[in-house]
Amino acid sequence: MKRLKLVLVGNGMAGVRTIEELLKLAPDMYDITVFGAEPHPNYNRILLSPVLAGEQTIDEIVLNGWDWYADHGITLHAGRKVTEVDRIGRLVRAVGPDGEVVETTYDRLLLCTGSNPFILPVPGKDLKGVIGYRDIADTDYMIETARTHRHAVVIGGGLLGLEAANGLMLRGMQVTVVHNSGCLMDRQLDTVAGGLLRQSLEGRGLSFRLAAQTQELVDDGAGRVKAVRFKEGPEVPADLVVMAVGIRPNTALAESMRLHCNRGIVVNDTMQTVTDPRVYSVGECAAHRGIAYGLVAPLFEQAKVAANHLAQWGIGRYQGSLTSTKLKVTGIDLFSAGEFQGGEGTEEIVMSDPFGGVYKKLVLKDDKLIGACLYGDTSDGSWYFKLLRDGRSIADIREKLMFGESNIGDTGHEGHSKAAGMPDEAEVCGCNGVTKGTICKAIREKGLFTLDEVKKHTKASASCGSCTGLVEQILMFTAGGDYSAAPGRKAVCGCTDASHQDVRDAIREQKYLTHAQVYAGLGWRTSDGCATCRPAVNYYLISTWPKEARDDPQSRFVNERSHANIQKDGTYSVIPRMWGGHTTPDELRRIADAADKYKIPTVKVTGGQRIDLLGVKKEDLPGVWKDIGMPSGFAYGKSLRTVKTCVGSEWCRFGTQDSTQMGKDIEHALWAMYSPHKVKIAVSGCPRNCAEAGIKDVGVIGVDSGWEIYVGGNGGIKTEVAQFLVKVRTAAEVMEYTGAFLALYRTEAWYLERTVHYIARVGLDHVKKRILDDAEGRRALWEHLQFALDGEPDPWFESVQASVDVRQFVPVAEVPA
Amino acid sequence: MNDWTTICRLEDIPVLGARRVARPAGVAVAVFRTADDAVFALLDRCPHKGGPLSQGIVFGHSVACPLHNWTIALDDGCARAPDDGCVPRFACRVEAGAVLLDAGELARHALDLEAPRAGPGAATAGALDDESFSVQAPHGA
């Protein structure tokens, strides 16, 4: 097949990113030609400020070097500006610096012309020494001017203006920032934070003229600027004037092509121009639903969608982005996102310590976080931004909200919460042993921008995820821009665009009973899924349609297929069930005998009050199970693990309730229950709580007058204290409420979501409504769970019923010696 | 010259699964069967930390290692980028429903690679580096 011709106009971040995404999907579909007005390969425009400040070099901010274009067979015309596009002849015409004209035809055209700095229409705007701040040439000009001249004025006290001012000051100039509002960065900060920022910058040597209207740039008589004159007050000397009052989408070419423009080139949700479907536009020049985005994350989202469409995959729509802001001035931490100004119908939580230079404001509406403005301590910015994007109810964490995520007890990185202050050799990811230096290096050298990319390349935050916030911060100041994805729905995996909720809903509504139906019904791109989606789909099928959908052992992780826990040398551990932590001399003898007979190297008592036999060969598993003769402990599954108990009123002189019996009863009722993730339960006989019920998925605590039930505790990566659900009088009620809660969790939670995360997502109020307020619904849930669990086989002894493929325990063949 | 020897019937290997061929010396060989009944044979030892690939989830023409979820391509035995490393391959064919491997290769190929070790004493006996066990990150991450 003849290859299609794709022409990209604009060799910047948005356009080249689109090409990169396209090459991933359809490397051979197009002959690609790229035009760029600048004589450089694609570089990270966001990092021009650190270059100006002398913290990075141009070479360091190049994203795709010359080799990249050559390696991918892309024709690059750097330094050739496109002057004309004939949409009827599908012809692009460009002119080089030497006046040489280049023409090329296209089948698809991608316009990524970016934006231009807005130049105030004041007298003197065309004088020498007056520039915008946009590209490498501007940056070089500023660096050059700083060597030879003394006074600089930056017009515009926004993000870009302050970064320019800071850079010029570090280059030795005396800089005055002029701003028309009384508050710096008034589109990103409220007045308090703006004031703190001004103080801090003044402390560094910047001068300010706030609430000032620029009237004229004064000529020195030789065509160069010499001062800035205002409507009121004295003029300020200036050898250099940088205009940073905003950007305007660069639509000149698009308008000449008669494409519809309205504050940008108007595009639809597939990033095609509304005028001509052969023409796409991505980036700062594109107006999507009336918004032209100037931050990197939305551009990359758009790039993905455009690439997807160009590759003729026909899926993926861009639906707009939420954005957040961070100033790249070393040593000043500020962050804002959403509707941080507050207003009608909103509530604010404010913490202000002007002396310590810390200010935080959170804006809430209807129990949701809708805006955040942080100054001085932005370590929780990414967490707030996530809450904001997810739009989840914060009612249950409201009192903790201001103190941040780091307040809740992270483990694995020595309690660090501020990535900026960490030395390079400090460990960020305690699971995979990744240091800050390693992450920074990978981001710089491999040009990473998103959390997923960092995860893939460094493994940081790829395991338990507790260091995600730190990694996001590192990404933020190493790569410059923000790292965020579009709000809302996250696909289960790369095989599909469907989210976990989509899959759950479809299985229930369409009554899908097999993997094949799910994959076909939801448009999976792969024929048999992957190691991420298959176990999730399998769980959704069997939990939604018990007794109807068939369990697929090949879609289960090895532990649930072998009914034992795989160890790092490929042997397994065996944990027999001990109801409520109770055992007998007979059982212990059998365990001891089996350990001897099968030469099991390690015998260990677990945290869940049972015994673990480690180092069992796969071939020996059936023999060990049979010799021990105890039920499967399900210690290997996303399933009910143990019910931990204290000795309770039977023996304990303080005991108020028979916690042991309660625990045994719960364990008997719920054993063999598969769930979205592992489930741990504990029952204590009095408020001394020796069974540590406060950190279990369900914790039951006996008191003199009955039982208290807590849910959503977790003793793992993040210690989470369980929340009080209800107090009941009888053991039968404990069973019903516990069962109903777990039934709800089983049918509503996403795969691999622990109870604490499930509750955080849906809100404790939702759980209370279903379990406490609706007695009939509660009983129905409990009955449904009992129906699902009724007659569940023991996989250690009933292999056929439990669909255990026993062939796995022996080699298929043995090569004779 | 290949010395083809019958190992098992195709149906002895579960679809989207694997079986092991034990060898008198060296790590076992994993024989995989995909959804389209293609059969592949690799040393049962992930290039990362030696995990038994035969125990992983098979999808497409790949397998996910059960220890740390590396994805290994069944046809060339190499890890999917950005992970890096390859596992030795074994010649393999299916003839009239029988799965055949090369006896010479089974006897001699990749005997130098050791199985990973764990448990008391393993750390001093040249075990592979320790690494915490974690396969999938929670949603919140």
Q: Which descriptors apply to this entry?
A:
heterodimer; A: alpha/beta; FAD/NAD(P)-binding domain; B: 141 residues; mainly beta; Rieske Iron-sulfur Protein; four-stranded antiparallel β-sheet; disordered C terminus
Q: Structural class, from helix and strand content of chain B?
A: mainly beta
Helicity of chain A, as a percent range? 25-40%
The number of helical elements of chain B comes to 1
Distance between the termini of chain A: 54 Å
User: Per CATH, which architecture of the domain at 4-115 and 249-310 in chain A?
Assistant: 3-Layer(bba) Sandwich
**Strand arrangement across the biggest beta sheet of chain B:** 2-3-4-8
Instruction: Predict the CATH topology of the domain at 4-115 and 249-310 in chain A.
Output: FAD/NAD(P)-binding domain
Give the strand line-up of the largest sheet of chain A: 3-2-1-7-19
Oligomerization state: heterodimer
Kindly, what is the distance between the CA atoms of the first and last residues of chain B, rounded to a whole number of angstroms? 52 Å
Rg calc of chain A: 32 Å
Bin the strand percentage of chain B.
25-35%
CATH topology description of chain B: Rieske Iron-sulfur Protein
CATH class of the domain at 4-115 and 249-310 in chain A: Alpha Beta
Q: Given the C-alpha coordinates, what overall shape of chain B results?
A: globular
Name the CATH superfamily assignment of chain B. Rieske [2Fe-2S] iron-sulphur domain
Low-confidence stretches of chain A: 482-487
Number of strands of chain B: 10
Q: Catalogue the unreliable spans of chain B.
A: 124-141
Rounded mean pLDDT of chain A is 90
